[in-house]
Amino acid sequence: MAHQSFESKAQIRAQIENKLALLPTLPGCYLMHNAQDEIIYVGKAKNLRNRVRSYFRGAHDTKTTKLVADIHHFEFIVTNSNKEALILEINLIQQYKPQYNIKLKEGTMYPYLKITHEKDPQLIITNQVLKDGGIYFGPFPNVYAATQTQHLLQKVYPLRRCSKQEKRACFYYHLGQCIGCCDHPVSKEEYQQQIDHIKQFFNGEVGTIKHDLKKRMQEAAEKLDFEQAASYRDLINYIETTVERQSVMSQSYNNMDVFNYYYDRGWLSIQVFLLRQGSILKRKAALYPLYGEQAPEEELTTYIARFYSEQNQLMPKAILVPSTVDQDSLSELFNIPVSTPLRGKKRAMLELCEKNAKLALDESFRLSEMRNQKTIGASQELANYLDIPQASHIESFDHSNIQGTSSVSGMVVYKDGVPDRKSYRKFKIKASQGANEFANTQEVIRRRYTRLLREEKALPDLILMDGGIVQVRAARDVIENELGLAIPVAGMIKDDHHRTASLLDGYREEIVDMDQRSQAFHLLQRIQEEVHRYAISYHRQVRSKAQYASRLDQIPGVGPKTRTKLLKQFKSLKNIQKATLEEITRLGIPRPVAQRILDDLNK
């Protein structure tokens, strides 16, 4: 149930403080709720009192401050151990999907080979790992690799390859690539023998399969079946050049997953390496903000636990993690070894994983700084050029008309140097001022800011006119003399090639000395191009509608109401031309008039 909105912040804080005093010093999970009683964050703690109190004590970074501001109340659940808290946290996050928790994103699907859980099992390729009793092998780097391996195993250790509806021996049975359940009953023991061979193959025990193939090749050669012998020879070559080479590479760390992280400035970067046959088959990366006092290694522990449950990820034979991670809980949870190598190739792989995590985070910070220079930094630089406090919220106007007809104006909005398209506005010039830029500017500025004042909405830090002294003076006249506002106004002046040339300070009525290589100047260029594009686009739309109306008005029997019906239904003259007589008469237009419309437009 949503909580009453009339509660003051002081009342909410007092309720939270009372509950903080009752928190136990035991392990467990805590759930943060917002005013709508939605769970917005779930966490775990070895000591609930210390962890939860830390959110409401001292200063925090921006992200945690935002989380805390959204907390209306919280609840907690005590557990017997840290491991129970970890499992509970995973289940709660899966159940409630809180907005502030780490969300695991599904990556690109890689193919697997699967032995189906059936009376007569098959070896198939799949992109999904399900808990359906099947036996999965993989993932493979691509479909080609999975298909090649499938074909090899079907030739050497075949299972069922035909449909269950076969009434006689299938084609693959005659080729020796189907176990033959289509021809005769196959025992459970026969299937299990083939499945055991396939498992041995994926465990790297390729000697047996290679020995079998050599034996078959010799038998085929003795029977003078050289084509079949060549086929076995090719399979042996495939094993020697591909499978055995991978097996040698993977002796020290076959089929394991490596997790590591890097933490800096409130952000956690996680890297996951999936090692198969000694190579990094797949890498997963995650970058998340941390809230409150949650330790990075604890978040990584949670991430690892959820990694296998949420993504249906196949369990490896072992997991490598940094020493700060709760290895015992994870090992007990998954029933496989979880360890921190101290030396050798495994240690090198763990360090490589950490290095990649650091590089990913460093890159993210650098990209963020670059974006800020082009946006927030450029906005502040522009404000400095105009000697105003800030230019975070900019509104820019441009007029468009042809010889004084169909006069319109477009307004674009930039917030922190980024276009806020949902705030764009279009204006039809109501007063018949033609190409009078001064009067048109006054009308649009008056309409825009009278409305903002009436609706008590936020005013911009800066108004930019696409134009020079005429537009700037007109805007200032309305802003200062009519509305009594103190919003800075400036003009964006173009050169003879219609490119941004300079900035006119509306207060001093002089050109600002700007570095045209500066981010502020580049921002001006983007704003001027965008407002011009927006105004021109709107003008074309208005002019096009006027042309449609003019053409329709010339047809006898078509008045304003009929014209409006037609344009509302068909949108354009071209669509009206393509319409049938019945489609037009369905709008309530008399048949003779409808026929006249079609005849006139299709002359």
UniProtKB/TrEMBL annotation:
GO terms for molecular function: DNA binding; excinuclease ABC activity. GO terms for biological process: nucleotide-excision repair; SOS response. GO terms for cellular component: cytoplasm; excinuclease repair complex. It comes from the Bacteria. The keyword Cytoplasm applies. HAMAP family: UvrC. Belongs to the UvrC family. Interacts with UvrB in an incision complex. This is UvrABC system protein C. It comes from Facklamia hominis CCUG 36813.
